[in-house]
Amino acid sequence: MEGITDAPMRAVQTESGAFRFVVSEFLRVCNQAPPRKVFERHIPELGRGCVTPSGTPVQIQLLGGNAEALAQSAADAVSYGAQAIDLNFGCPAPTVNRHDGGATLLKYPHRIREIVSAVRRAVPQDIPVSAKLRLGWDSLDPILENAEQAALGGADWITIHGRTRQACYNPPIYWEPIGEVRKRLAPLPVVANGDIWTLEDFRRCREITGCEHYMLGRGALVDPYLAPRVAQELGIATAPVNAPFGKDPKQWAAIFSRFEFHTEQRPDRAVHVARRIKQWTRFASIYGPLDWMDRIKRLDTYETIHSELVA
Ligand SMILES: Cc1cc2nc3c(=O)[nH]c(=O)nc-3n(C[C@H](O)[C@H](O)[C@H](O)COP(=O)(O)O)c2cc1C
Q: Residue 106 carries which DSSP code?
């Protein structure tokens, strides 16, 4: 998730062992492959086996509409250490879409196939290439053809966010078409995504889609215990977690301290971490304010926020 799931967030989220893999924020590719330093800044794990500190693989996500440049970028990423490539056909941001990237491609099924197959050909066979799709630009039906084209292009799996581009992040979520794609493309793995906020949501999504694989986005930020609880239901061993994450500031202070721990040295580190904690807090309060939110609003270093939360 662009602007959110950077390397420290990926490190925190994978500590429980719940995620089989995580995906980088998208790296935008225009008409040529970005230089190596852009990859390394964006995905510092590249220099460390492309895994998070707890050993979870990080998939590199590329976004763009130029098949040749994407293929070159994917090949470059692999030469820098990437172990898997994901292609973004879902981003709804108007600037991205105006520049022929993200969800715009949903209007051109043949281009999805062309991009996936160019990238597939550019990287070794043992490097998975996957596609992240929304249901369509402004209707639900295109997903069947788009997913089929991604599969024909050689995608190793497909992740589907059950919304159109037009719906952006607004309700409702449509899980049914994800189930249809799963049936139609079996045995190709289909990863169901969208609006899994609670364990009950996960169970309903599983019932409707019949999928074996799930992607968690915002839900994992709102409730850091959600991923381990979902993983347990899927038979993935994690540290035992039984209850949802609460509103207790001390509990949040503990998780923020992991984020701080994983943040690299930089001149503005204390302020940067404070900013990220406040961003995370805004997400976490999506279902109602956390009563300590106001107390940290005007604090601008990690240390002052931490002291306030544990006081
Ligand atoms: C702030 C924000 C940034 C996102 N950035 C990306 C991204 O870089 N790549 C991507 O594939 N999806 C991105 N997404 C979409 C999520 O991956 C996910 O598909 C969507 O939020 C629905 O899943 P959720 O309800 O579990 O969050 C982003 C979503 C949000 C809210």
A: G
13 CA distance to ligand 1 middle (Å): 15
Query: Which of 233, 265, 284 delimits the end of a domain?
Result: 233
Q: pLDDT for 37-54, tens place per residue?
A: 999 999 999 999 999 999
Q: What range does the domain containing 114 cover?
A: 7-233
Domains identified in the chain, total number? 2
Residue whose CA is closest, atom 3 of ligand 1?
1
Q: Is the distance from CB of 151 to CB of 185 less than 8 angstroms?
A: yes
Instruction: Verify that 213 and 255 share a domain, yes or no.
Output: no
Q: Are 260 and 203 found together in one domain? A: no
Using an 8 Å Cβ cutoff, are 11 and 262 in contact? yes
**Considering the domain boundaries, does residue 240 fall inside one?**
no
pLDDT by residue (tens digit) across 228-259?
999 999 999 898 887 888 889 999 999 999 99
CA of 307 to the centre of ligand 1 (A): 31
Q: Is 25 in the pocket of ligand 1 (CB under 6 A)?
A: yes
- Find the farthest-apart pair of alpha carbons in the chain and give their distance in angstroms, rounded: 58
pTM (2 d.p.): 0.97
If you take atom 12 of ligand 1, which residue's CA is the nearest one? Answer: 1
Handedness of CA 99, 102, 104, 109 (dihedral sign): positive
The answer to whether 214 and 193 have CB atoms below 8 angstroms apart is yes
Check whether residue 273 and residue 228 sit in a common domain.
no
